[in-house]
Amino acid sequence: MKPENEVVTQFPSLSANEALARQIAAAFTAQLDPTLEELGDVKTAVSEAVTNAIVHAYPDRIGPVSLRLRRLPGNVLEITVKDRGCGIPDVAKAREPMFTTGGAERSGMGFTIMESFMNSFSLRSVPGKGTTVRMRKKLTGRGGE
Known about the structure:
By secondary structure, this protein is an alpha+beta fold. A five-stranded antiparallel sheet has the order 1-2-3-5-4, with helices on one face. α1 packs antiparallel against α2 and α2 packs antiparallel against α4 (110-117). The longest helix has 22 residues, at 36-57. The protein is built from four helices and five strands, in the order βααββααββ. The protein has a single domain (5-138), classed as Heat Shock Protein 90, CATH 3.30.565. The two termini are 21 Å apart.
């Protein structure tokens, strides 16, 4: 599907860049005239995906994280967060609520939250190669299409 608009950015896996990714996503999503709830959902999903890349993909080093936002026909927002980190050895296990490899300070709810806030969610990971999260959300917007 050909996008009506698109932005791609890459940044190092520093925790400070999670807020940057949220703001980029919010600014891009604004062109779709989202409701405040829709905007909050997008920002939260992006935050979870980027935080996973920062915390889990590169546990002992800094590496690249890319964020791609695409406006698709029908007021659909597609979000892709990709890393080239360690990958996930067991994707099914990682998607289970409350499962985490991040220690006691992590809730293990990232994938569950992303999936619940978006209309579609896919996760692809190859150990040693990285992980790609792709999400889509149809925005009704403030006009209530």
